[in-house]
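Human: I hope this is not a bother. Would you mind checking the protein record under this note? Thank you for your patience.
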Amino acid sequence: MSKVLVITTSLRAKSNSDILAERVIAGAKEAGHEAEQISLKEKTLNFCIGCLACQKTQTCVLKDDAIAIAEKVKDAETLVFITPIYYYEMSGQMKTLLDRLNPLYSTDYKFRNVYMLSTAAEDEAFVPEKAVNGLQGWVDCFEKAALSGSLFCGGITDAGEAEKNTAAQSAAYEFGKTLS
């Protein structure tokens, strides 16, 4: 089975993203996968400065938590990004992390399947489209990888609200079981 890395990008305490990440991980483990979670809470991620030194050295010149996260991403076979939707897009901290994963481009990264779970206060089907499209743009740069699926859990507003949303929890668990 696969080595799954779940990256939660919400910085909010009692985040719905973290609650649903637990269910994704439980489903992945039931399916026989090894699963680990990284949260961007309390992590320092500087913005990419576009120097492209990482394309020669496979490491970033900026010394922060993105370097250790990139190593975990490189070694995972399956990636799951979990983000709240802000203004119909992925969280800014998720986009910053994607930019900072640029050193992986010229390496022998292991990930092949990339997934996204998103949450939002709104629940219309179109709400996550731009976030999924943004992640697709990142995945397109890694020719051995594919965006293999996404799950949107809308209608979740307040911190910790996903604890009471059995439908979202069930969907996240089933999503975890389908990871490959």
Notes: Helices lie at 16-30, 54-57, 66-75, 92-100, 129-140, 166-177. The first strand starts at residue 3 and ends at 8. The chain has a mean pLDDT of 97.
